[in-house]
Amino acid sequence: MKSIERRLPQEIDKSFIVFNEVGTYFPYPWHYHPEYELVMIRRSTGRRMVGDHIGHFDEGDLVFMGPRLPHVWVNDPEFLHGKKEYLADAIVIQFVENFLGQFFMRIPEMENFRPFLNISDRGMVIKGRAREKINALMEEMLPGNGLQRLSSLFSIFDILSRLKKSEYEVLASIGETLNDIYKLYRWLGHADHFQSLIGPGEHDFPPEIRKLSYDFLDQFLKNEKK
Fold first, then answer.
1. Separation between Cα atoms, residue 42 and residue 19, nearest integer Å
2. Residues 66, 121: contact at Cβ < 8 Å?
3. What 8-state DSSP symbol labels residue 35?
4. Of 74, 61, 76, 199, whose CA–CA distance to 124 is shortest?
5. Which of 3, 120, 174, 8 is nearest to 72 (CA)?
6. Exposed, middle or buried by CB within 10 Å (0-12, 13-18, 19+), for 96?
7. Measuring CA to CA, which residue among 27, 57, 30 is closest to residue 45?
8. pLDDT band at 102, cuts 50/70/90?
9. pTM of the model
10. What mean pLDDT is predicted for residues 95-106?
């Protein structure tokens, strides 16, 4: 399965995104983006796929993911067929690492939060009292103004930086490795030379994955011959 890059629109006068996704079902396909993301399910049920992890989601489910980690939320059939008596509803927060300046995440006050960002490359589901607190803050952010939303986001950062091991579960097993490879290519100035494709596993890649791989390689071999 090939993941695509898909990004939510960001308002010019906002430094990060707070978005309420409401509809018959969640429409986004298997995708990734350069932002960190918090997804809180207000109403709906189904399966979520984060990297190579597949799990169930329902009301109150809260997941935090790092950049470029492929994911999708797939609603149960009654939502997909429009037969559910209520709409699928979620709150999404997205931000990039430098959303408040290039060195923001390096200031002393963020020291306890940085390790949490490092493990978010694999995605994690938040549990217990921490989840309840963060979900409540995300609800407050929807009607809030810019400064109120920023204050709530800082409160969320504080809660995440103090998580106990019993309050979160790491999801994907491959996200961190893929992201490290991408960071290396980006540092070398060749981010466009790296593309991740997630197939069914083992070494028997299906024809469509092989073709994508060969086409990707041919693109740069032709450039080298010029």
1. 12
2. yes
3. S
4. 61
5. 3
6. middle
7. 57
8. confident
9. 0.74
10. 90
Structural domain boundaries in the chain: 4-173, 176-225
pLDDT band, residue 201 (cuts 50/70/90): very low
User: Quick one: tokens of 90?
Assistant: 């979620």
The Cβ of residue 83 has, within 10 Å, a number of other Cβ atoms equal to: 9
Tokens describing residue 84: 């559910």
Kind of pairing, strands 31-32 and 4-5? parallel
Give, for 160, the enclosing helix (H) or strand (E): helix 146-161
Structure tokens at 196: 């991740």
Alpha helices in 47-145 (DSSP H): 77-80, 114-119, 128-141
- Rounded to a whole number of angstroms, the distance between the first and last alpha carbons of the chain is 32
Residue type, 151: S
Residue pair 64/38 in contact by the 8 Å Cβ criterion = yes
Give CA–CA dist 35/68, Å, rounded.
Answer: 7
Write out the two tokens for 63: 């997941």
Tokens of 57: 């989601």
CB burial of residue 154 (10 Å; 0-12, 13-18, 19+) = middle
Domain 4-173: CATH architecture, name and number where available: Sandwich (2.60)
Tokens of 32: 């990734």
47: which residues sit within 8 A by CB, 6+ positions away?
54, 55, 56, 57, 73, 74
Indicate if the pLDDT at residue 200 is higher than 70.
no
Rounded Cα distance between 135 and 139, Å, is 6
Q: Please, what sign has the CA dihedral across residues 5, 75, 9, 110?
A: negative
